Structures are given as structure tokens and as C-alpha cells.
Amino acid sequence: MTAVDALAGGFADPPLEAARAFRALLDVMARPGRIADLGGAVPPAPLSVAAGTVALTLLDGTTPVHLAGAHDVAAVREWITFHTGAPLVGAEAAMFAIGTWEALQPVGRFAIGTPEYPDRACTLIVERAELLAEGARLTGPGIRDHAHLSLPEVAAFRANRALFPLGFDCVFTAGGRVAALPRSTIVEDV
Amino acid sequence: MSSHSMDRAEPQTARQEWMGLLARARPAALAGLLPDPLPDHALLRAPEIGAVMVRGRAGATGAPFNLGEMTVVRCSLRLASGAVGHAVVQGRDRDHARRAAVVDALMQTGAAAAIRAAVLDPLAQAEAEARQVRAEKAAATKVEFFTMVRGEDK
Amino acid sequence: MYVAVKGGERAIDNAHAWLAEERRGDPSVADLTIPQIREQLRLAVNRVMAEGSLYDPDLAALAIKQARGDLIEAVFLIRAYRTTLPRHGVSLPVETAQMAVARRISATFKDAPGGQVLGPTFDYTHRLLDFTLAANGEAPVAPRAPAAPGMVPHITSFLNRDGMIEDAPRDDTLPPDLTREPMELPASRATRLQAIARGDEGFILSLAYSTQRGYGRTHAFVGELRIGMVAVEMEVPELGFAICIGEIEVTECETVNQFKGSRTEPPQFTRGYGLTFGQNERKSIAMSLVDRALRWKELGEDFTGAPAQDEEFVLMHADNVQATGFLEHIKLPHYVDFQSELELVRKLRAEVEASAMREAAE
């Protein structure tokens, strides 16, 4: 039986809020480095509002999800299960993974797709303390000249870019803010 | 993913029985037995139309396969008393799901006996009667054989 | 060469308006209601549910009305609607042994426990047009006989006890879902059954008939055909147990097939399986024959080149929405393609003419 608290905190108006959140996610994924506001969900700690909103928007019964580190607690597990129906799985089987960058290590565990189906790759939802338009230099599709984003590191994203068209994609969340880094983006130290 | 190993030889709990009865009920019949206004409640998961993939088994007993989907509405809510009710009901009638969840919640309160008498018992009786009628019509088409000739003695 | 064209919006709007008027027909004749279609054209509704892959009799009836009775168009409408629905879960496999049977017959066991129950069948009708139906709206009443609703055991379970028929052992492998992932060949039996269950009835019927005529012969008899209501149960995570979410009508067919044995299997009867939404017995029998024909590799039989044994042929051509989409798209504007065809033919003709001129000059 699920604790009553886990039953609260979903979208109040699911069609509208999910559509708005999906649009915001499309925008940040299409414009790597752009930081947007994202809200609507009221998830249990330590899941941020933005990460909870991503979960409500993108997860369903056909998207296995992995909870890493401190995010793998009963309150979050029950909330995700009740509101999205997504099965909870190990890192290797996950289509989505949620946790801090440290908890998600080693990222080599996550699916990167296959040459026939590059879409069968994991999307990492990386919880950050803050998101700033500074730090690593981003270039590539969706970026006019270059952009900057406060990434947790550079080497892992360079290695991931080398796998293109395979590789994982990342969504960064901090409080009610979101940014994204698709596998196509070239990441360099400044 | 949750295991599909639940053994259905186990007798159903009372709650499983009433949730099934509410899901199978005709929406109008349920609304007739529990008319508006419904008791105050907060929606935890507003009534939402969706689909459930229905599975069968190859050879009736072998490996599962996906037969096709069916429409359902699901709803979860909390009464002012704190009791939480859930419903997943066949079809696309949002009020059906909301009512079924309200009954599920009320059945966990002091009102259970009254709700059973006013709502569940009449639904169960109507269902049993409908099933009996179908079974009797089927029984009337059962073949009685008369052996005319048996061929294997030749 | 590329030909850019624009226009036709007004013509399209007017065509839609005329379509709506034609759909309604003569306004002096009463409009069809959805309950009328659902109750009185139930076998059409069943077919649309089976091939539309969505059990909802009211929606199927609406689709039939909107499609003016074109069942493939109605299937298309249901498939399109289905894609808008969130998936709330997956049921436990339906327990057809628990079915409340309206019809249950066996061609192989006369005295099967539970008996031969004919149900509402066309089988013994004389196929003479009944002009009383054109005249009035009488409501016949079916006779009844004493009955105790109860479980009717599967006929194959009796043969199983003697080891005379292959077993279908319990297996909980999660099946792939071809509505979510692209179909990959070779396909599992689970994928094949899903594809055939939603496949076009006419196509599956013809394939099944071809196996009876010798193209991949499987010597099939209907071991059991049953039609009735089954409960659909689903595990609900927040409850921690399974609940019944409704009841659906299904038709199930199990064929019993002669089998001489192979390199790996002893001589015994083998089985084909059909299951469809609604009362849909032609489709269900055909499905079980095609299922059995496709199992040649697993049973160690020879591939004889028969279409019904050819998984790629069967699975890639069974879906009438895919088929009609590709077939009918060739009537839509192909000006770009055709312009290049014209250019090519003109060029070839010019070359032929030029060489003819040269030859004449020499």
C-alpha cells in the first residue's frame, strides 16, 4: 500500500501542464545551454520541482526508470510509481535515470542505443544545486555561436559526444529550473 | 516491472471484490444507487481516460502476448475523513470512475455497512441475475446427442 | 524536376461537406444512433474492435457510422484515436478457462465435459433472406434452460493428461508490443499472435484457407471454439494487488493438428491458437491455423515455401491500415515523381529518334 503523501503532488491540470512542460523540455533540448523555468509537480524530497515535473511529463508505464543514490528512497519510489506507472529498474535497463551526477556514476552503465535504434538510449535527469550560463563551452546543433553551461565536468560529455549518433542525453534540473545537453553537443573546457 | 505471478486461485479479498464489482457496473446503475451530490473529496489523480493493454496466453496457458487494448478511466481521491479511494473502470465515463473511487473510500469508513447495503448489494444482485440469464440461454443451446450408428465395429 | 503547386483548400472543404451530406444520406430517413449500431451491427463492431486493437463497443460503433460502414476506414479511425490515449497499464493474461461461455463447441470430442453449447450462431441457419426483418421490428426472446454458471474446462487439458498433445507450459516472458516498438524478424510467437489478432480478417482467412488447400498443410481440426465473457484483471501498484477492471467478450479457438513427429518431437497432436475481441469466430479459427503454420521452425517441420509459413510475408502484409495507406497513397498527387518520369520517357524517345535519323543518314 502506498503512503498517502505519495498520492499528492501530481499535476492539477495534467493535459495543460504536461503540454507546457513538454514544450519547455523541447526548447531546452533544442537549444543546449538555454535555462528555462519548469514547474507544476510537487514531488517528495530530494526530488526537485523541475525533476519531478520532467518525470510527470516524460515517464509512463513503458519507460523504465532508475533512481540513483539519495533519490532511491521509498517516498520518491512510491510517488513515481503512483503518478507515472514507470517501472523501477537497474541502471542498465533504464530509459531514464534520476540522481546527482555523483550518484549516477559510472555513466558507462547507461544505454547508449544501437546503430539501428539510436533512440534506445537513456536520458539522465541530473539534479544540480544550481544552473548557470557559465562554465563549459557548448557548440553544435541548436547553438548559433556558442553557449555556456555550468556542467559537473567536461570529460564524460566529450566521451559521450564521441559515440554520436549513439550516447545518452542529459537534462539538468535545479529547483524549478531546467537545461539540457543532447548527445550531439560538443563540450569544451573554457 | 511488477511481477505477474499473482496466483488467482487465492480467494479475493473483500476490497478486490467490491472494486471489481464497481468496475463492471453500468455507469447509470451506479449513479442511480449513489446519486449526486457525492461526499466532499480532493482529487489525487483526476479521472483520466486511457488504455490498458489486454494480454492473453498462447494456447490459453503458455507465454503471454498482447491481444489489444481496452479503454479505461482511473481516478484516485481522498475524502474529508482522510480515507483514500482508487478506481480503474472499463470505458470512458469519468463520473463512473469518480463514483467508484468514492465508494472504495467510503467502504473504508464507518459508512461501509450502509454503502454495502445501498450500493454494492444491489449491484452484485443485478450482475448475478444478468449472468444467470446468459447461462440459461447458453444451456438451452446445449446439444443432446442420440447415437444412430457407431462405425468402428465393422 | 520539381513542380511546386498550391491550392485546392476550397475544393477539399467542399468535398468534406459533401462527404458529410452523403454520409447522412436521405434526411427523410431516420439518423442511425450509436446504440443501434452497437446492438444491431455487433459483429461489425467486433471486427472493428479486433482490428482496431481497442475494446470499446461505443467507439467502434461511432467509427462505423463516421466511416459510412467502411470497416477498414473505421479501423483506421480507431487506431488513430488509440494513439491519443495514455497507457494506464497492462492486464494480467486473461483466464479463458474461467470464461462464462455463450458458445463452446468441439469438432473432435463429442462428449466433452461441459457439453457442446451452440450459442448464438449462424451455423445451422439456411442462409435464406428473412424478409420479415425488412418489414418490422419484432424482438425475439431466446428460450432458457436450467443452468449453473461455472467454469468449463479446456478440451486440450484432457488430451494433455495422456501426453497425446503438445503442452503449452506456463511461461511469464514479457511479450514485446508491436504498437510500441518496431517489429523485428524473426518474430517471437507472442509478436506473431499480436500481429495476427489485429490483422485483416480477409487476409488471415485467405492464408488459413491456403493451408487447408495444401500450401503449408497442417491438418487442423477445431479442438475447441469458445465465445464468452472474461474478466480483465490488472495489478495496481498503489494497492499492491490485482483488481478486476472490467469484462470483455472474446472468441478463442484451439486447433488440434496431426503431427507425424520430427527430428526433435515425438508423434503427437500439436496446437494452433486464436484469440480475438468479441464474437469473431471466423477470424479466431483462421488465426489459429495461421499461427500453427508459422510454427514450422519451432516444431522442426520443413519450410515448403508456402505463403502461410513465411513470417515476413504474413506479418508485413496482415495489417489493413498499413496496407490501405500504402495502396491508396498512389492516388494522391505524385506530380513531382510523374514529371520526372515524363522527362525520362521524352529523353529516351529523343535518343531513339536521333539514332534512327543517324541510321537513315548513313
From TrEMBL, chain A:
UniProt-listed InterPro entries: PhnH-like_sp (IPR038058), Phosphonate_metab_PhnH (IPR008772)
Any GO molecular function: lyase activity
Record-linked Pfam families: PhnH
Signal peptide extent: none
Keywords: Lyase
Protein name per Swiss-Prot or TrEMBL: Phosphonate C-P lyase system protein PhnH
Lineage, broadest ranks: Bacteria, Pseudomonadati, Pseudomonadota, Alphaproteobacteria, Rhodobacterales
Automatic annotation (TrEMBL), chain C:
GO MF annotation list: lyase activity
Pfam families noted in UniProt: PhnI
Xref: InterPro entries: PhnI
Keywords: Lyase
UniProt KW Lyase keyword: yes
Protein name: Carbon-phosphorus lyase complex subunit PhnI
Organism: Paragemmobacter ruber
